[in-house]
Design goal:
The chain is 37% helix and 13% strand. It is an alpha+beta fold. Helix 7 packs across helix 12. The model has no long low-confidence stretch (mean pLDDT 94). The protein binds heme C (HEC). The site of heme C has 22 residues, from helix 12.
Length: 314
């Protein structure tokens, strides 16, 4: 006789489970897929390239296959002085971000402008390309879009890299951030509370179109980093802090990341960690006046990627 009750119970359970699935998974999905990307989302797509994190193309998370963000102060084609411009260089073969591959990711207005003004229908992985984020007015609303400058302005990859004032390897750096587990302690998500007085503006829904993974963080044991590059833009401070956080914050619980230097300094000389530690201990117990110097990192070291990423978080 108990059978009937079991049946009612399992139907009730099924209905409750299905309803909660619809409310928590399906309905937010509708909201997100109707959200138009912000300029921030477009900049992130072009900075980080294809999915930045575990990927079959880079299973050991070396930060391969990422675009180079450059700062330009002169036109790569004509050499004329221009206002400071950020461009994104995808060398031939660099995988494209989802916003350039899937038409629906950024929203209809952005997609239309990117094709009509930005010529992004001529995108090619084999040829690579130089991209910009531009703005125009569509239906009375200021709308950002992606421009393929190699087509619209004749900016070749080589000329753009040569004209660049600075190369920022933040795409590879995001992979380091994920691989090293920085998100165990740090969030990239100031909340809509008084939180933003210390950590800056909370992100908007449209800031995340096409980004995966988002590195929001799990829970916060350390300062939020979403805008850290705005409050601290010192490469030297970052170098010291990553080499040994206790060098600049005596009671920091943050681990050392000295191994990201890859064992050598900028000149290719081996780094003697044991000697450095000995000198640091001497500094801490007062038998030495100055702390030991932190070695300058090599241009293609993993710490360079990570510092580029952190300073790029504005
Ligand atoms: C065990 C927790 C922990 C982990 C893991 C960790 N951090 Fe930190 N981090 C801290 C704490 C605590 C502070 C604040 C004290 C200090 O400056 O050291 C901090 C400070 C910082 C700051 C300065 C923040 C500011 O507001 O100026 C940066 C930048 C930073 N961490 C980046 C990183 C990156 C990148 C990683 C991964 C490679 C990382 N951290 C991993 C705990 C952590």
């Amino acid at each position: 006789m108990g059978f009937r009750e079991y049946r009612i119970g399992s139907i009730m359970f099924g209905v409750a489970l299905a309803t909660s699935m619809v409310v928590t998974i399906y309905m937010p999905g509708l909201d997100i897929s109707n959200t138009t990307a912000t300029a921030t989302a477009l900049e992130k797509q072009l900075t980080y390239g294809k999915v930045a994190g575990f990927d079959y193309g880079d299973p050991f998370l070396h930060g391969d296959d990422k675009p180079i963000k450059v700062i330009l102060k002169k036109d790569p084609k004509t050499g004329a002085t221009i206002d400071e411009t950020v461009a994104y260089v995808f060398k031939p073969g660099t995988s494209l971000p989802s916003g350039l591959v899937h038409e629906h990711i950024n929203g209809a207005a952005i997609q239309a402008l990117s094709v009509s003004l930005g010529k992004t229908d001529q995108v090619s992985v084999e040829a690579g390309g130089v991209y910009l984020v531009e703005k125009s007015v569509k239906d009375g609303v200021e709308t950002p879009y992606i421009e393929l400058a190699s087509v619209t302005r004749g900016w070749t990859i080589d000329a753009t890299l040569k004209a660049a004032d600075q190369e920022i390897l933040a795409g590879s750096g995001k992979v380091m951030f994920i691989r090293e587990g920085c998100w165990w302690c740090h969030t990239l998500l100031p909340e809509q509370t008084h939180d933003w007085q210390s950590f800056g503006r909370p992100p908007m829904l449209g800031d995340f179109n096409g980004e995966s993974p988002t590195t929001f963080g799990s829970d916060r044991k350390a300062p939020d980093l979403l805008h850290v590059g705005s409050r601290n833009s010192s490469k030297e401070w970052m170098m010291m802090h990553f080499f040994n956080p206790r060098l600049v914050q005596p009671h920091s619980i943050m681990p050392r990341y000295d191994y990201l230097w890859g064992g050598v300094d900028k000149k290719g000389n081996n780094i003697d960690l044991a000697k450095w530690d000995e000198e640091f201990d001497a500094y801490r117990d007062g038998s030495r006046v100055y702390p030991p110097e932190v070695p300058e990192y090599a241009d293609n070291s993993e710490i360079r990627y990570l510092i580029d990423y952190v300073l790029d978080l504005k």
